[in-house]
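Q: What would this complex look like in 3D?
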Amino acid sequence: MGTDPDPRCPCPTGAFSRRRLLTSAAAASGVGAIGAVAGFGLGRSSSRAEADADSVAPRRDLGGVNGTSTEPFYGRHQAGVETVAQAHAHFLAFTLRPGAGAAEVVRWLRLLTADAAALTQGDAPLADSEPELADGPARLTVTFGFGPGLVALAGKQHVPDWLRPLERFQIDDLDPALCAGDLLLQICGDDPLVLAHARRMLFKDSRSFAEMAWQRDGFRRAYGSAGEGKTQRNLFGQLDGTASPGPGSEDFARLVWGESKGSGDAVFSARGEPPTDLGESLPAWLSGGTSLVLRDISMNLDTWDQADRPAREFALGRRLDDGAPLSGRTEFDVPDFTAVDERGLTRISAASHIARARTGLGPEAQIHRRTYNYETGAGGAAGLLFASFQASIDRQFLPIQRRLAEVDLLNEWTTPIGSTVWAIPPGAAEGEYVGETLFGG
Amino acid sequence: MQKNSTLLTAMSVAVMIGVSACAQGQATEPEATSSSHVQVTDLSFDRAWVKAADDGMTAVFGELKNTTDHDLTLVEARYEDADAVQLHETDANGSGGMSMKEKEGGFTIPAGSSLNLEPGGDHIMIMGLKKAIEPGEEISLDLVTADGTRIPATAVAKQYSGAQEDYAPGEGHDGH
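A: Here is my prediction, written as structure tokens for the whole assembly.
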């Protein structure tokens, strides 16, 4: 998982000094820039943020500053992918009503686009009966995903090969109801009231076109409570989700958008330089877009409770408190899979999560994970909404997923119960709707 | 000549109406803009929407904006696919409900001001729909001011549960 260079990585990791690695991570807006990840893992904890937290007395923001923060809606890419993850997320999957065709879809997308364009900027959409609830968007984003059924309405030739259910993994126990959907809305923001209103508005404008297939609400640390870029923890208590390409980096552009930023002085993560051709799996209408694999991973908190700390850390390959690999001292130390303890046993099990996720894969096998925890109440369902963005599912997501499905000690406590694959269309320009590159103006 | 002038004026107005379809804007000739009357081009209908409906009645809402230095009055609205269109005002009926009646003399938009047409308030009432207005559809209608100028406008259809005020008894309308 990781935040560290992989000693078995075939790429020239030797070219990277530790200093340069840290620089790279810092340049990546404080979000872990290094390593490919799947499943559950450890992220990079920002030592700078920790230092800040130690030196500054706790104080509350009484000004509501974050409420006025906005993320742009219009642009080459949709927001909500490269956007630093907000505190809350609603995932809504819709199934088109029988008989719906391209004309209906275009009307629907126009409505949703207009709603999202307004709501994300703190403005009430047309016919909003609670316009005051649109105030203070707090970084609201609405990201559209298209399923194969919706894309096919524009013509079957537009459906890319990868836009279909993933292959079956032996760890899966999928609920068909959680694997459906023609259109996905990923609604993220730092304010749950604003999110509820946005969801209601988007739902009201969807009812005549589609029915709900499934929905999940996810959460991370609240805005302001942990500091931006600091690794969040999942409900197992593990630091989770840092090892993603940093927003704005050349890594990110290649791995997620499948294109180069064109800057000549790129700094790459310890995984090495990602190839520039990952975008080849994106058809023309997806230029500026990407793919999303959304896995609903159930976490069994009850059996996890039966595992004591040594067992938990053994399964993970890292310490729970600071995320350091069991072979090292800090979260950023390179895991040494050959290090042995006094009994001559390797400190990091070859079956541990980090050993399985980190080894043997090239620099193309990296994904951008944007995960959210969920829990439906005390004693209810708990898990992780594992949102993985990548230009190429075949070359990036699947190699990692196959290894983890094959062997990963963490699989003892986790079960994928939902799995969907989405095409994330490019962003819209002002006056356009999301999906116009597919369905036309 | 008068008719032609009005038409050109109307076309130029469409360009500045924020919610207008692109198709209308594209139809505008440069000379149309230069020949338009200032007092007319400065009335716009922004954020316009219509309540989606299969049949019967529905209503159009939005913001009428007058950027001239004199009052303008909207006296009529026209919609092709309906039996009748009226300009309505809504009054509280004293018991939490609202009642609608035709606005005598039309809507006056004061100089430099806006008039919001909204559920529970003034609105453009469409009666006797000849065909359904589907959610997401953009309808075209014409607004006519007191000086006879016709202003084409568009409104996007939204599924909406409100705007169900009853008519006041004795106003000569059938109930909803």
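A: To summarize the key features: Residues 1-40, 167-176 of chain B have pLDDT under 50 and may be disordered. The helical segments of chain B are 2-16, 22-26, 30-35, 38-41.
Q: Very helpful, thank you.
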